[in-house]
Predict the structure.
Amino acid sequence: MSDAAPTVLLIEDDPQIRRFLRATLPAHGYRLVEAETGEGGLVQAATRTPEVVLLDLGLPDVDGLEVTRRIREWSAVPIVVLSARGLERDKVAALDAGADDYLTKPFGVEELLARLRVALRHASRVDGGQSGPVFATDALEVDLSARRVRMAGQEVHLTPTEFKLLAVLVKHAGKVVTQRQLLIEVWGPGAAGNAHYLRVQMHGLRHKLEETPARPRYLITEPGVGYRLREEG
Amino acid sequence: MENDRRPDPEALLARIRADERLSSRGRLKIFFGAAAGVGKTFAMLQAAHERLAESVDVVVGHVDTHGRPETEALLTGLPELPPRKAVYRGSTLSEFDLDAALARKPALMLVDELAHTNAPDSRHARRHQDVEELLQAGIDVYTTLNVQHIESLNDLVAQITGVTVRETVPDSVLETADDVALVDLPPDELLARLREGKVYIPEQAERAMANFFRKGNLIALREMALRCTADRVDAQMQVYRKAEGSERTWPITEKILVCVSPSPSAIRVVRAGRRLARRLRAEWTVLFVEQPRHVGLPEADRDYAPQALRLAEQLGAEAITISGHDAIEEILSFARGRNFSKIVVGKPARYWWLRELFTGSFVEKLARQSGDIDVFMVHGDAKEDAAARPAVPPQGRAFDWTGYAWAAGTVAACSLIAGVMARHFELSNLIMVYLLGVVIAATRWGRGPSLLSAILGVAAFDFFFVPPYLTFAVADYQYVVTFLVMAAVAVTISTLTARFKEQAEVARQRERRTGALYSLSRALASTRSIEEMIAAVRRRVEEVFEGESAVYLAGSGGRLELRPAEGPAFALDPKEAAVAQWVHEHSEAAGCGTSTLAGADGLYLPLVGSRGPVGVLAVRLEPGRRALGTDPMHLLETFANQAALALERALLAREAHRSRLAAEEENLRNALLAAVSHDLRTPLASISGAASSLAFSEDRLPPAARRELVLTIHEEAERMTRLANNLLDMGRLQARGVVLRREWQPLEEVFGAALHQLDLHLKDREVVLRLPADLPLVPIDDVLIERVLVNLLENASRYTPAGSPIELAASAGAGEVVVEVLDRGPGLQAGEESRIFEKFFRGETTHSRRGIGLGLAVARSIVEVHGGRIWAENREGGGAAFRFTLPLKGEPPDSSGEPPEPEGRS
């Protein structure tokens, strides 16, 4: 396992957070590479070819958003952005610019590890080509190729739009998907501004898939950002 | 012993105040002499040369050498201020230039002849006012003054020399002067100088020696000057002794009451009272008893009493006006009430023998009733009466003929009626008709016309109805008695009726004055804002005085500001505003109709409250009216006083309100700081304690203890996170930095997000959800409303026993959606329902729990930003209910149909 230990590049200016991750991540089987500045991080990203990048959005030299864009010019490495609460717009901007997920500071280790796992799994899927056609948890089962959805063994009938929406979420399972991303992927680039399409469809989907739609197990809303399909019910 | 010698603190304070005033104020030195030619100007110039030699910045403001060569020689070498040329009645006058002097601002300025009267276009009527302004500007002044110009000695001088001096200087000028240098010359030497032509040119000298400069006069004047200076020195000695506490001071035992009436001698009486008061070192008060009969007097006569009162105030007396019917009774009760030991009254100039035969004279009665109070009598001189008349001659009332014509007409009408009646009635009845005519004339046209009708009535009765008819001859002597009685009755009726009418007129005038004042004070009492007050004052002033008015208020830095900013045109004129500014700085009335800056368009009265000047009231009378009479002026002054007090009150109230707000803000800030520092330090203490024991004694800790410490750190950190979040939210909401990103959302999603966030927090609770399926979309900022729900749910879980259920519900109402968070905890205490949403409020029942009360305040702010309401109340069956509304404003997006089908297929 130690040989295959995935490399995590941490671009973060706060020494205490670096210290905390330096102590934590190796214990959970990751190799940590650190960078204090955006420029330094870009160099490290090019030279050390990390498996995941943890990027702070509030860097002193280069805007985190800019770092995301520049990495995306040449690499598909998963990027998880770190930012404070209340800066939802920054998060959405980073996600739309190509970041894969986000974590709100302060965060717990569990949460961080979960994000890293999801990011690594999606990266390996991208590497390995097509993502698996079947998504399954304890109760929810989605077969994308057969266009079939089962809830606790019972088949659920979805409208084509609902199915398409669910398919996008399944494709990104565990990761947050921004409203804009969902609108573009489901309705096309022209629909990016029509957030209420999404809400209506999501409402319908929840009522079909969730036992208590107001306390969802799978279709989680991230206010101000987007939606996430939770894998571990 | 020590105690006895300690200086009186009041007196010390007064001296310190005087010293303070002096330090910023210029010093005044008066070169004081008995008569012209004693060498005052000469002495002044010599002193100026000495100061110049000490390199003091000396400037000659104005010196009249009268062509004396010795004096002129002394002028050389002293810098001089060019005089101002004033043109008056075709001749050019050379006047002291006050503005140039103030602009030049030397350390010391020489201004000759303090008693001089300025040319009409000058700022002040009198030179001593100019000097006062120089002193206020911090300029030292040397000036000269002759004894005959001193106000309180004025009539004494006139008595001795037979020459009335019109140019007087208030005694206070001499008294408050910092130095008085007596320039003395024996009368023989002065006369010799006069003869040698050293004082006046020869022909002037001749005339002067024949009149004013008689040796006897000069001796008397010299004595007055010496005594005056001695009095001053004595007063200084007293001040010194008081300050040093070296000796017991003279107790003030005497109190003098000076009574004036509306007569020309009033001024004299005041001056005499002043002299007596000074000699006796007594307190003195000048009293005027206003009687109903005074209202009937011509305006010029009515002016005497207020003039005397003003003079009294200038001379340092307390001036008081009371009203009453019986002057003697009022004077004596006032004197007894305030322990006056002496009363000074004027001696009546004429005796009404008839009246005195029955009632005794005023003075006699006063003396008889005064008991142990001494009564002094001061004579009034008819010749001086004329001199003492006001400088501005009162406008003579045009003789009104119409009343007399009407009276004659009435008699004619009576004759006609009597003529018709004569055939059927007795003569005595005809007399009644004429008497009726007299009554009508008296009530309608006053005393003169009614007397005329009485005479004409008797004549007509004789002419037409007493045989022989159509002649004034009388056949029967009985009729003479008839005529006499008829005349007596007619005169009595006319006198009584006319007096009644006069009294009614007095009452009416007073009524009007009181009415105007009452309505002003009522208007002022009912208004709160300064703008309304000013509007009320302006409205009343314009109603009563018929003109335009404006109010300036003191702004920052002592500058006046016109309120409201767009006042009448005259007040906006910078020249007029400068007059207002002057009035404000000096707290003295000025402008047209006064003796200061009389060339201004408006009349300006200072608004002086109990704590100092508040502003200025400006009035411009209708075109053509340049001055107000005495009564209206008094009324206007009373208006100004009322307005000043009211405005001061309002200004103070505003000030107090501001400082209260500031204090509240300060309190809040302190509360925040205290709460934040407490709530930050407590978790920090546990974190750093737990962390340090982990860091330094990990080996010795059993695993369970280690885990406990780690969990402590984790929980405390979360607590701090919550606090930081709430503080940041509050800060952002208060700074109005929040831009609502409203979108039409299903509440279900926000509920879900909030519950998801609190998953750990609520894991051992039953959460009941009630969301109707047909709940409409709501226009909200989901991020913020999620905060509201999180805070309310957290609050519910924190303040209720573990395991008790929490309900979260929403329902649609009229134009709004109501969201509820319900618990089964202890509920709210009475009075907590609204305070609970205040910042830093923490429920009483839970003082041991943690967290400053910011969560609910944040919730309230967010709900209010959304245009909703939030409130808390107790539930039936126990527990608290927190409810908030979200209005359904605007057009929801078109969600009727299915959203368009996606384009392609994946």
